[in-house]
Amino acid sequence: MRTRLLPHSYKIIGLSVFVFAFVIPIIMGMLHQTSWEQTEPRRIIANTSMLIGLLLFILSKEKIEDEFINFCRLRAFRTAFIAGIIYFLQDALGTFNGNLVNSSFGLLIMEISVYIVVFYISKAGWINGK
Amino acid sequence: MVNNLRNYREQQGFTQEKLAAIVGVSRQSIISIEKGQYIPTTVLALKLASALNTKVEALFELDKNDWK
């Protein structure tokens, strides 16, 4: 099965975008003694950049692509999807405060984080694949 | 599923890395198959059998639990 993904080098690009989007608001906040993310456009830019960075990271190829990697990828997508539904349900039932931007950003970051964790522990063979 | 891949690989004197290179997968894939953590597709099973000069049935056998 052929999978259409970005070249492996996009992993580094994606990670760099994520780190910059994560670190710059913190540094700017330290410099200005206030949260750089206080204004809405800046917060949206930082959040979107983080998501784009992580998306590039997860949609790029591994060094060696084979059926086992595809298997790990599918398992990670499945787990992330289910985790997303559970997150949404607990959010809707409990802590949902009507802030859709925050809520959807949190949901997506959580889903991508679950994807990355499950993918790499599957790849390392720490989960039984049967 | 009973998995004899490791035995056949060692009989042939292949390392996991060498076998992985022959069949075109990562070493981690061979490790996962040998540990029984991953069941290969038919294509990969046939490639493994071919690389180890044996038949697929010799590498992988059905277990009692597979019929449940």
Question: Which labels suit this protein?
Answer:
heterodimer; A: 130 residues; mainly alpha; 74% helix; B: 68 residues; 434 Repressor (Amino-terminal Domain); two-stranded antiparallel ribbon; 5 helices; 56% helix
CATH level 1 class label of chain B: Mainly Alpha
Architecture (CATH level 2) name of chain B: Orthogonal Bundle
Regions with little confidence, pLDDT below 50 for 5+ residues of chain A: none
Q: Could you give the order of strands across the largest sheet of chain B?
A: 1-2
Task: Please bin the fraction of helical residues of chain A.
Answer: over 70%
What's the helix count of chain A?
4
The overall strand count of chain B is: 2
Distance between the termini of chain B: 12 Å
Using a beta-carbon cutoff below 8 angstroms, give the protein chain pair with the largest interface and the number of residues from each chain: A-B, 15 and 17 residues
Task: Write structural notes for this entry.
With 130 residues, chain A is mainly alpha-helical. Chain A has four helices and no strands. The radius of gyration of chain A is 17 Å and the shape is globular. The model of chain A has no long low-confidence stretch (mean pLDDT 84). The mean pLDDT of chain B is 93. Chain B has helices at 5-11, 16-23, 27-35, 42-51, 56-59, and strands at residues 2-3, 60-61. Chain B is mainly alpha-helical. Chain B is built from five helices and two strands. Chain B is globular and about 35 Å long.
